[in-house]
Amino acid sequence: MARFTIRTGATALAVAAVVGLAGCSSPVAAENASSSDGAPGTGGTAIGFIMVGPRDDYGYNQAVYEASQILADEHPDLEILTAENVPEDDSAVTTMEQMIDRGAKIIFATSYGHLDAAQQVAEDHPDVVVVQQGNTIAGDILPNSGTYFGTVYEPMYLAGIAAGAATESGKLGYVYAFPIPQTIANINAFERGAQTVNPGVETITVSTSSWCDPAAQREAANSLLSQGVDVITQHQDCTKTVIDATEAAGAHTVGYHADASELAPEGWLTGAVWDWAPLYSDIVATILDGKFTGSEFNANYRVGYKTGTNPFVLAGYGPSVSAETQAAIEDAQAFLATDAGSPFVGPVLDQDGAVKVADGVTPDYAEIDAMDYFVQGVVGDLAN
């Protein structure tokens, strides 16, 4: 399987599904311009990042933006262009075209729903490499396009251990947007991680049907709290509302996408957060070195703890996470890095008790990415 060359000695790049919120498109901003007229920097290349939400959302888009700025520091000869609140529609094409007009030869389209736009722009501009974050490409793959991602469910499994150890009610809560396979895998891994230290624990799910709707998020969090949930996590692009509501109620928080521990000084446990900068840097290096071709890059490849290059990492621990729990998490992470390691080593049963992964079997990344069921211990109806 072809992959990016990782200069740090790691060997792979990743793909999976994650999503963003549609919003109002904002102008393209030059974050590291080396010329005043918007022309690309002295290296002859500008790099564009389109984000589906605001860069200060304590979540998905903030993680993208912060990594883009690290890339700007690493490459002062390149111009970094960013655009916030770019919807998952034709607006994304327009924004990327504007970036190309300003000299962009590399574009990161960072939302799940940006895939079609990214493919269109790549087809229209064969001299521009367009990579999309968090999806997969079916069928023929253009030589100047690709996707990338990390195995998000692995650190969510580890965070589940912290949640299972912290809960007193035995009830965890999960606020999510849409029941896509990646979200389902995250929820299932979180529950299975919690079960390793608290076998009777359950994870109650609530869907907001949006990647960032503060009103819906507040309602979801309050609904979970009213059911006795005392640890809440989420799969939302903007995370502040859920964390604020959880902290105000005196419950525990597991963060997502970006480190938001400052919002929950009492209730923070840990968080599964992005560290995109090393991966962005390696993607750019691969492209600038002329090594990004259809035969060199596999657009549907994933990395995780097995490759040592998972861009999703655990945030720091809060005050209530014991040394014993931290040790259990460290042991579990070491297990995930082995060939046999997975949050879903069988037996895995669905909510109805049907065997989905046989006893002793370790499913591969592709199987997990096709997950369409909740495991036992998860409360919620995917049909709704």
From TrEMBL:
<dbReference type="InterPro" id="IPR003760">
    <property type="entry name" value="PnrA-like"/>
</dbReference>
<dbReference type="InterPro" id="IPR028082">
    <property type="entry name" value="Peripla_BP_I"/>
</dbReference>
<dbReference type="GO" id="GO:0005886">
    <property type="term" value="C:plasma membrane"/>
</dbReference>
<feature type="domain" description="ABC transporter substrate-binding protein PnrA-like">
    <location>
        <begin position="46"/>
        <end position="296"/>
    </location>
</feature>
<protein>
    <submittedName>
        <fullName>BMP family ABC transporter substrate-binding protein</fullName>
    </submittedName>
</protein>
<dbReference type="InterPro" id="IPR052910">
    <property type="entry name" value="ABC-Purine-Binding"/>
</dbReference>
<keyword id="KW-0732">Signal</keyword>
<feature type="signal peptide">
    <location>
        <begin position="1"/>
        <end position="30"/>
    </location>
</feature>
<dbReference type="Pfam" id="PF02608">
    <property type="entry name" value="Bmp"/>
</dbReference>
